[in-house]
Each structure stands twice: as C-alpha cells, then as structure tokens.
Amino acid sequence: MITKTQILQVEGLTAQTLLELFSSVNKRLDELGARVSPPHQTVFLTREEVGKFLKISLPTVWAWSKQGILKPHRLGNQVRYIESEVLQAAQATKKGGALK
C-alpha cells in the first residue's frame, strides 16, 4: 500500500477554504468506503430454527447432525448451526448428494 503524506499549511486559509478542503476529503472517504465491502457476519441458528428453515423435525436435525449432513457448533453448552452451512446442506440434500 502506498501512503502519501501531505502537509497542509492552515495559516492564512479562510474558514470557507478550510470547509471546502474538508468537504473534498469527506467525499473521497465516502468513495473509498463504497468500494470496501462490509465484513461477512456469521449467523448462527438454533436447532429449532434449522428445523423450521429446512421444514424437518428436531429428530431429523439431530440425525442429520450425527450423519454429518449438518455440522453442529458448540457455543458453551449450546448447539448452533451456521446459516451458510445449513444452506449448503439443504442444496446438497435437494440434489441427493448428502443422503447417499
């Protein structure tokens, strides 16, 4: 990353000129911010939410976890499923890939 350092002499600048400079810096920061994508947030689902989402029973959620179709994650004493992994499992079962 190339960093440019500019020293700006503030002495002798009018308030209006200073506001215009800050405005242009603000616009540039907005442009740069628009290019940066927000960090991906992991969404965790409970067993009940997975069951409702996939339209399967809780025993099926448990069985699929035991078979490795769904991957449970332990957070303390709670079991959670990552939403993106549940979506992948749903697509795989729809194609018949995970049930073979």
Number of strands: 3
Which segments are poorly predicted (pLDDT under 50) over 5 or more consecutive residues? none
One letter per element, helices H and strands E, the order comes to: HEHHEEH
Question: What is the overall silhouette?
Answer: rod-shaped
Helix content: 40-55%
Report the biggest beta sheet as strand number plus sense, adding barrel if it closes.
Answer: 3 strands, antiparallel
Give the termini distance in whole angstroms.
49 Å
Percent range for β-strand residues: 5-15%
Mean pLDDT: 84
What is the number of helices?
4
Give the C-alpha Rg: 26 Å
* Largest sheet strand order: 1-3-2
Class based on secondary structure composition and strand pairing? mainly alpha
Provide an overview of this structure.
- The protein is rod-shaped.
- The mean pLDDT is 84.
- Helix content is 52%, strand content 11%.
- Helix 2 (47-54) packs across helix 3.
- A 3-stranded antiparallel beta sheet has the order 1-3-2.
- The chain is mainly α.
- Strand 2 and strand 3 form a beta hairpin.
- It is built from 4 helices and 3 strands, in the order αβααββα.
